[in-house]
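Q: What does the predicted 3D structure of Branched-chain-amino-acid aminotransferase look like?
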Amino acid sequence: MAPVAITPESSGTTTPTTASGLTQAGIKHAHPPSKSEAPLDASRMKVTLTQTPRQVPEPNSPEVMAQKTCTDHMVTARWTVENGWDAPELKPYGAFSIMPTASVLHYATECFEGLKLYRGFDGRLRLFRVAKNCERFRKSAARIALPDFDPAEVAKLIIALCARDGAKWLPKERAGSFLYIRPTMIATDEALGVQRPKEALLYIILACFPDMTKSIAAPAPPALNGETVTTSTKPASSGLKLLASNEDTIRAWPGGFGSAKVGANYGPSLVAQGEARSRGYDQVLWLFGQECYVTEAGASNFFIVIRDKDSQALQLITAPLHERIILEGVTRASVLHLAQERLSHANNGLEPVQVVEKRFTMADVIAAHDEGRLVEAFAAGTAFFIAPISAIHFRGRDLIIPTVGDSGVYARQIKAWLASIMYGQEDHEWGIVVEEEV
């Protein structure tokens, strides 16, 4: 397959330097490429096609819900400190071998990305802002001392895999569906000592994944550990229900690695997530500090729409990036861009909103709720897409979030705009067409 030209997108944000020497753009690599090391180069990719094709599962089948089924092929690329990047390989999907002493198994030297391949209603395959995922992938690798690479080359590898397997695994009769894309890098260095890895493996897989937006309703939250639960109305029938984290449970902290998409951010969150689900909630609303600053909802970015107490203007608010507590979500950036572009003035009968990135606390959310200024809330990310939030449990109280039907009106409109781009109903630079191989 011929290499595909990828133009990196501008994030539209500044890049201040932090105390650690990393910038918000995040590039200070432990292993910057030298002139003698081979760079990652998609044009060198070797192709070996499978001789044992896998069966494509039916949509929403048990195989899809289990999230274990991948397509026929994957892409791998090995790196060593001596030689740099080997030629990438597109080859049959399957297991690979690493030593028990591999760095990734002991020191969490692993990062990944999550994006989707969409089958458009016009019959074409598309990726959404793939360049931004690849740029973030590079930042995450830098944060855990993994090797550097050109993000455009990773984008070409992703496109090559999607072009190879897309026609079979996303047939044209399944317009409006998607496959999940997981680029990953792990340190495979055999040395057991705590040190910068000298060997790594980059790989990319395509997985069959359920549509999370169609299965987010959970049972009404029960009283928790004998707490007295107060509600202003009955819990909504749909939308995510969030359990606010306790002070002794912290997902990320200023100057840490919460802004990097590394495995070490996710494993420690599973206990809190399991507790939330055992209590009838869908996800954790992650708070930080004694002030209870609102950060993320599960593994998604969190948004609220409130009416400002002083100006009475509607504001779309989300946590800022500069402390590196939250992930720089691609969906988050897209929501902010579209809201600024299309909702700063009246549109489709909606009142204009001001787009605000700032710190805010649960006290701010509660005050807006109690004073009738809380209009709606939603989460934004790759897995749940744009997911309305219907309830938040905080310190013995359930806050019921307003919805109109199954969603707030702003979440519904933003979701519709994004889906139109992803599935080819709107011609937009964010939708990257993949020319599939048949």
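A (community wiki): The structure tokens above were generated from the sequence. The helical segments are 62-66, 103-107, 130-143, 151-169, 270-278, 330-342, 362-370, 409-422. Confidence is low (pLDDT under 50) at residues 1-26, 216-237.
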